[in-house]
Amino acid sequence: xxxxxxxxxxxxxxxxxxxxxxxxxxxxxxxxxxxxxxxxxxxxxxxxxxxxxxxxxxxxxxxxxxxxxxxxxxxxxxxxxxxxxxxxxxxxxxxxxxxxxxxxxxxxxxxxxxxxxxxxxxxxxxxxxxxxxxxxxxxxxxxxxxxxxxxxxxxxxxxxxxxxxxxxxxxxxxxxxxxxxxxxxxxxxxxxxxxxxxxxxxxxxxxxxxxxxxxxxxxxxxxxxxxxxxxxxxxxxxxxxxxxxxxxxxxxxxxxxxxxxxxxxxxxxxxxxxxxxxxxxxxxxxxxxxxxxxxxxxxxxxxxxxxxxxxxxxxxxxxxxxxxxxxxxxxxxxxxxxxxxxxxxxxxxxxxxxxxxxxxxxxxxxxxxxxxxxxxxxxxxxxxxxxxxxxxxxxxxxxxxxxxxxxxxxxxxxxxxxxxxxxxxxxxxxxxxxxxxxxxxxxxxxxxxxxxxxxxxxxxxxxxxxxxxxxxxxxxxxxxxxxxxxxxxxxxxxxxxxxxxxxxxxxxxxxxxxxxxxxxxxxxxxxxxxxxxxxxxxxxxxxxxxxxxxxxxxxxxxxxxxxxxxxxxxxxxxxxxxxxxxxxxxxxxxxxxxxxxxxxxxxxxxxxxxxxxxxxxxxxxxxxxxxxxxxxxxxxxxxxxxxxxxxxxxxxxxxxxxxxxxxxxxxxxxxxxxxxxxxxxxxxxxxxxxxxxxxxxxxxxxxxxxxxxxxxxxxxxxxxxxxxxxxxxxxxxxxxxxx
Length: 739
Hints:
This protein is α+β, with helices and mostly antiparallel strands.
C-alpha cells in the first residue's frame, strides 16, 4: 500500500465522518453556508494530502538520515528508565522488529515505520549491552590504604599536580573481586613522577564516584560507570615505580607526553600549554582564567580536539601531499594522486588520534574524517549529510552513552547545521556562481573567506549555543566576533604549523614551526581576553527542563534533515522548545548530598546559602540558577542567621527554616520553625515530638542524596531526591539502592 492510497482512504474516511456530523447537527437539512464550508474543508484536506505526498516522495532518499535519530531515541529510552532492564529483555524485541521490517520491506509507508521501530529497539539493546560490558566493581565507601596499580594515563595540572588514571591490582584489604577496574587519583606532592605503563605503589584515599549535587543535575557516577571508573581520590605518598613501562601502547603514551613536554618547553608559558593541548589533548595545565576567557569569547571549542582539528590537520596534510605529487607530471597524469593523498591523510588522522589521547570527541572526529576521505577513495562526495549520519550511527552503536554528553551533541549539531545550510538552494547558487579573474578574483576570494567564517560562526554558534546553554548555563554573546577574529589564526597559522612541527620534530628542526605556532596561539589568546572583557560577554542563563532541549533538537533535525518545503514545520517545535527554556524546576530549599551545605530561596527569587566558603556544590547550584554571584555573595542575607549550633532563615511571608547542627538545636528549632533540616541524625523519639511540618536529618540525606524541596500550592511541601531521579541503576551505590 503506497502513500497515495493511504491518504485517499484517510480523506474518504474524513469526508464520511464530516458528512455524518453535518447530518446529525442539522437533522439532515444541509444549509448552503455549511455546505460551502464542508466543501472548502474537503478541498483543503485533499490539498494537504497531495502536499504531504509530494514532500514524502521528494525526500524519500533522505530517510536513511533518520537512522541515528531513532537509534538515539532508543538510547534515550534506556537512560530514562527508573530501573536497569535485564539484558535478555532488551535483546528480545530485536528479532521480531527485524522480521516486521522484512515483511513490510515493499511498503512505502510501513517499511519506514518498521525500520524506525527496529532502530529504536537496536539503540535500546545496544545501550543495555554496553552497560553490561563495561560493568566493573565500584567502591562502596571511602577507604585508605596501600594501592598497587598500573598507570594508564597521566596529565599535569596548571598547579603542577598530577592527575592519573590507574588500573589497581591491590588496594588495602579489598579482595580482587571487589577491586575497581580503574581509579582516578590526584597527586599533589612535589617532585612526584609517573610514567604510563609502569607499575607503581603508593598510599591513597579512595572514594566512590560522587553523586549529583542536585536531584536532576549532572551525574558523574553515571559517566564513570561507562568508563569503568570505580573510585576517585588522592595520594598520601609519592608513587614508587616497581615495574617499568613495556609494550606498544605504553610507548605511544610516552611519545604523546614527550611531544607535549617539548611543545610546552619550546613555546613556554600559557601559549605553550594551549599549543600542547591542541596537539596532545592535555588541557589540565591550562590556567583557569584562560579557559574562562576562551569560553566567554565563544572559542573554547578550539581546545577540544574534534572535527575542527581533524579537518585542519588531515586536510592540510591532504593538500600538502597532493600539491607535492602535482609537481611530478609523470605521477599527476598517470596515477590517481588525489586518492593517494586521501590515503596519506587517513594515516595522518590516525596518528593524530593516537598522540591526542583518543578522547571520545576525537574518536568521533576521526571516524567522520576517515569516512570523508574514504568517500574520496570511492569517488563519492566527500562531505555530505549521509556521511555525517553514518558516523553518528557508528558512534551510537559503538558507544551509545555518548548521546547524553555535551560533546556528542555539540559536534554533530554544528556539522549537521553547517551541511544543511551550505547545501540549501540559495547558498548553493551563490557558491556556484562564476568566479572573477585577476585582482578582482583575489578580492572576491578574500571577501568570500571572511563571509564564510562569519556565516559558519553564526550557523555553528546558533546550533551549539542552545546545547551549551542547556549543559553549561552560559551563552557567549560575542561568540561571532571572537570566532571571526580568532579562526583565521587557527586555520592559517596554528594548525598548519602544528602539522609542520610534528613532521619536523623527529629531525629536531621543529623550532621555527613551533615559534610560529606559539605566536598564533598568543594572538588567539589576546583576542579571547579582549572579547571576554566586553560588557556582558559571558551571559549566564537558568537551567532548562530536558523537555525543552528534546523538543528543540527534534524540531532542528526536522528542519535540517529534510529538503522539501515540509521541513519548515520544524520551526514550530524549535519555538516551543525555546519558549519552555525558563520553565525548569525552581526548588525553595536545596540540601547537599552530604548535608554540608543548604540553601533557601528568598522572596526576591535568589538563593541564600548557609555557608560562604566556595565549593563545587555551591558553584553548581548558582550555575543551575543562572546566577553570576559567588558563594560568598549568596551567603549575605539579613534573613539568614548562623551561629555555632546551626543556621535559621526567617523572612516575612516565607516559611521559617532551621538548619541545626546539634541535637539540642534540633529540639529548640522543632518548636519555632516550620521546616527543620538537620545536619545530624535525629533519634526516633525526638522525631515523634517535633512540631515542625517537616523534619529531615542526616540519615535521610545519606540514603537519598541531594534533596530539593518545593513549596506547592496550599503550602504543601514537595520533596525530590537524587535517589528518586536516578532510580535503581548499576551506577547507583548499592547502599542507596537497597534502602
